[in-house]
Design a protein that fits this description.
heterotrimer; A mainly alpha; B alpha+beta; C alpha+beta; A: mainly alpha; 11 helices; B: alpha+beta; Immunoglobulin-like; C8orf32 fold; six-stranded antiparallel β-sheet; four-stranded antiparallel β-sheet; 5 helices; 16 strands
Chain lengths: 221, 268, 439
């Protein structure tokens, strides 16, 4: 059993979060990319508002390029992928070179997509590598704490993003059941009070999405 | 020979709370051929843990840490010393001593000390190989030619800077003296300690000759015997700092106000 | 043996190296950049017998260097006996007074040494320099070999080549030999260090923990790693990849933010092993290099098996005379510089530069050494589909565990510039695998 420092437990958690953020925003982006064909500006403006991203874009085309590929835009997918990479690169010893290589390859795929004429197709490779990354985390990261902390990060991020997007309550419920199972296995400090409140919120008829975002963001201490 | 009671007290006040305060304190006198220490008692406050260590110059150290924010730090050392048991400080061997022949950042001479050194060579009439005679002559000259003036220099002042301005404190007397002796390839080292009747800590030097380390006090033009209590020695001031502290978690450097209170009296 | 066989896999192998993030970092205009370390697939091949000779010589050399360091920080017999002048020790940058009279566990000072060699056109080997402080580079041929085997298994089936992937095991043995009880950590200055890939890769491969200074702390004369649950785990050995100066702000450079306060006090008490031991740079100073054959004779009573490049110390009047007379044929090195800096070839200077340099040399003779330029052999590399000859050196790794161990491989670095003799990766070179034949 390894020993994990506070800094590394934090990085494992955020590796999970950012990998999920990249993955889910890529899927949502692909959906919008399609609907923007007919609906135009209104679509991406609403997308930004939901995720509390400042609308700094001048057109549909500008949004499509910068939201995906602009290193200078802190909310872009590439910026989030860079953060995932920055966390992963210092975790080689915990997660292993093979696991790390999938994040590395997602970065390469992102760089390729940036200069491609059909970026959406290339972005599929970014998604493929993230899915493979999660697969190998499950398959070959032996240390249960290491594995669980990454997966908790992923879970927390997903609930956060889904709540912002007002995803259907049943899907939210499934995620929260998984969250409950996972968090106990991490050895991390978290607020039991907030977890209880999350479990209460999800049973309400009218789901308080904003309340849920607040609680999930502050769950892990 | 004298039986001395000493009390060393240092209080540091910080203008902002400091955190993660790591410290190494060279504040404990120890036995040599010339002095014998007894009834040594010390306190360091605050601390989460302290331990004893040494350095490679043979000095005693207390080291430790205090993590929580604090605005003051104090060291208190008390004890008794029998001084003047021998006329030299310790024995030593030439190979080890030779390390102290080399100038350091504090002692490296510039044009003014070099000029002064040339003058001393001319003035010295004794035999070149009489190290003792030469060291005492240089001390006498320095004492006559250099003025003591409290507060006229800072701790970072080098020998050359201190000499160029014509006045300084005991630290500067010691650094200039070391610079001169090292130009003569005489191994010599910086000493911190306490002096009978002095309210502050004091500095002097030791030079190496014929297998012995012999202490001279250039500020008072004295061959040291039974009124000085040695605490630490090294190549220059920076090897013998009584209090060395590092703060890992502060936004800006804290300003320190350091009060030192020393008393050395003959025991009754 | 067809050493060009792997060339057709060159693209695939380099792709895999990129996949695994095999890089080194450099600072350009004050910003940190990671670069792929260009790998050339044509190996340097060393025969079994030839390597056995090198191995013997390397063990001898590192054994003597260890004895020298121990002597310098304790008895100083070699100075007293007039073999090494004291100013080369005390005035050298590698000597640390803090190390006086401090004995490391099992009296080992240089656990991991990187010895740079070159082979002259007449096939004889010369030692170029000893790197005892924090030598890096073993990870590169180690991972490259693994990938080459994946791409071209038949090459390794058909040739008898010593497997070099055991480096991690040798390293582990070296750690365990001196561990004073507890975990082993690899101490890194952080991901913005040139060799961060190596630090993290060696941690993974040896099963040691990779740690930064702030993750470790000293308490009650022991060193601890703080777990995220707040548990303190004792550390018995630190393979530190930060230089002496930055290791401990309380005992070395006070402004160091990457070190661990008081780690040296704990080490002084024998409660943790530091690999390599602080102060061991006293033996790899360029000025001390000259004396290594003499120390081998002095400590071991043997003649040096591996030769130094013919070296002159302008400090000695007769050497100064020789250097001035033969100035144009020599390479002059500033003893205080490393990494390929401070190396000048006299024949490349203008007349004015020469005059200026000679004035400096006369003013500070101890600062320089002069060496005959060894015309070392070219090794083939592939550049844009062409085979071209390039200068290359070899960094051999010698580990001091319960006995001296020589890794049966090494980092072969080559200069990409056809006219350059300087092969350091920080100056834009590439690397090759080094094959040691097993029969």
């Amino acid at each position: 059993m390894g020993i994990i420092s506070i800094e590394h437990s934090d990085r494992l958690f955020w590796l999970g979060r950012y990998s999920e953020r990249v993955y889910t925003t890529l899927i949502r982006f692909a959906d919008r990319f399609d609907s923007m064909i007919e609906l135009g500006d209104a679509e991406y403006k609403e997308f930004c508002a939901r995720q509390e991203i400042p609308d700094i874009y001048s057109s549909v085309a500008d949004f499509a390029r910068r939201y995906c590929f602009d290193d200078e835009d802190p909310n872009s997918i590439v910026s989030n992928l860079t953060r995932a990479y920055d966390n992963a690169i210092v975790l080689r010893e915990e997660i292993g070179s093979a696991t790390l290589s999938y994040i590395q390859m997602a970065v390469y795929a992102m760089n390729k997509a940036k200069v491609s004429e059909v970026p959406l197709l290339e972005l599929q490779h970014v998604r493929d590598n993230i899915v493979a990354f999660w697969g190998i985390v499950d398959d070959s990261v032996d240390d249960e704490h290491v594995r669980s902390i990454i997966k908790l990060g992923k879970r927390v991020e997903r609930i956060d993003l889904y709540a912002r997007m007002h995803i259907d309550i049943n899907e939210m419920k499934r995620e929260i059941v998984k969250l409950n199972r996972r968090i106990e296995r991490t050895g991390l400090n978290f607020s039991r009070k907030r977890l209880a409140h999350i479990n209460y919120l999800i049973e309400e008829d009218e789901l308080d999405y904003e309340g849920l975002v607040q609680e999930i963001e502050a769950l892990v201490e | 020979m004298k039986h001395l009671c000493f009390h060393y007290h240092m209080q540091i006040d910080f203008d902002i709370p400091v955190k993660d305060h790591h410290f190494t304190l060279k504040c404990l006198p120890k036995d040599s051929r010339r002095q014998h220490i007894e009834k040594l008692h010390y306190e360091v406050f605050p601390n989460r843990f302290i331990s004893r260590s040494g350095d490679s110059f043979g000095n005693e150290c207390i080291y430790g840490v205090y993590e929580d924010p604090h605005k003051e730090f104090l060291i208190d050392v008390k004890g008794e010393a029998l001084c003047g048991l021998k006329e030299y400080e310790t024995e030593g061997n030439r190979t080890d001593a030779n390390f102290f022949k080399y100038q350091t950042a504090h002692t490296v001479p510039g044009a003014n000390i070099e000029k002064y050194h040339d003058e001393l060579i001319r003035r010295f009439e004794g035999s070149q190989d009489r190290v003792r005679e030469k060291a005492e002559f240089y001390m006498k000259c320095l004492h006559e030619d250099y003025e003591y003036k409290s507060g006229s220099t800072r701790i970072a002042t080098t020998a050359e800077e201190a000499f160029s301005q014509g006045c300084g404190v005991c630290q500067d007397f010691a650094h200039i003296f070391l610079s001169l002796l090292r130009m003569e390839k005489i191994p010599c080292r910086y000493v911190t300690g306490m002096l009978l009747g002095e309210g502050l800590s004091h500095a002097w030097i030791e030079y190496f000759s014929d297998g012995l380390w012999i202490a001279l006090d250039p500020t008072n033009e004295k061959v040291i015997s039974d009124e000085h209590i040695k605490i630490a020695s090294g190549r220059d001031y920076s090897d013998c700092r009584i209090n060395q502290g590092v703060f890992m978690g502060c936004d800006r450097e804290a300003k320190q106000d350091q009060q030192i209170c020393v008393s050395v009296e003959e025991c009754v | 043996m067809d050493t060009r066989e792997l060339c057709r896999y060159s693209g695939s192998i380099n792709e895999l190296l990129a996949r695994y993030g095999v890089r080194f970092g450099i600072y350009k205009n004050n910003t940190f950049k990671e670069q792929l370390f260009p790998f050339d697939t044509i190996p340097r091949v060393i025969g079994a017998e030839e390597f056995a000779f090198l191995e013997k010589g390397l063990k001898q050399r590192v054994t003597a260097l260890n004895l020298f360091i121990k002597d310098i920080y304790h008895e100083k017999q070699i100075i007293q006996d007039g073999i090494v002048p004291e100013e080369f020790v005390y005035a050298g940058s590698g000597y640390l007074p803090q190390c006086e009279k401090v004995m490391p566990p099992k009296e080992i000072y240089s656990h991991i040494s990187g010895i740079d060699l070159v082979q002259a056109k007449d096939k004889s080997w010369y030692i170029l320099e000893d790197n005892l402080r924090v030598p890096s580079g073993a990870s590169y041929p180690m991972i490259a070999r693994d990938l080459c085997r994946k791409c071209s298994p038949q090459t390794f089936r058909n040739n008898h080549i010593e497997d070099n992937r055991n480096y991690a095991k040798l390293l582990r043995r070296t750690f365990d030999n001196v561990n004073t009880g507890g975990h082993t950590v690899i101490l890194t200055p952080g991901r913005f260090n040139a060799a961060y890939f190596e630090h993290s890769f060696l941690a993974e491969q040896t099963g040691a923990h990779l740690a930064s200074g702030h993750e470790l702390m000293v308490e009650n004369d022991h060193l601890y790693f703080i777990d995220y649950s707040g548990k303190k785990e004792r550390i018995g050995a630190v393979y530190r990849r930060i230089s002496d100066d930055y290791l401990d702000p309380m005992n070395f450079k006070e402004e160091s933010l990457i070190g661990i306060p008081h780690i040296y006090d704990v080490y002084r008490k024998g409660n943790v092993a530091l690999l390599n031991a602080p102060g061991n740079g006293v033996a790899d100073d360029k000025g001390i290099y000259y004396f290594v054959p003499k120390m081998i004779k002095y400590y071991l009573g043997e003649d040096a098996i591996l030769k130094n490049a013919p070296t002159y110390l302008p400090y000695y009047p007769e050497d100064m005379e020789y250097v001035l007379k033969n100035f144009d044929d020599l390479v002059i090195k500033d003893v205080a510089e490393a990494g390929g800096y401070g190396v000048v070839f006299a024949n490349k200077m203008t007349a004015a530069e020469k005059d200026e340099f000679i004035t400096l040399l006369k003013a500070e003779p101890r600062r320089f050494i002069a060496q005959e330029v060894i015309d070392f052999i070219d090794i083939e590399i592939m550049e844009q589909g062409e085979y071209v000859p390039r200068k290359a050196d070899l960094r051999a790794f010698v580990l001091m565990a319960d006995e001296p161990l020589v890794w049966k491989s090494g980092l072969t670095r080559f200069s990409r510039n056809p006219d350059s003799f300087i092969v350091n990766s920080s100056q834009g070179g590439g690397f090759k695998d080094t094959w040691v034949l097993s029969q």
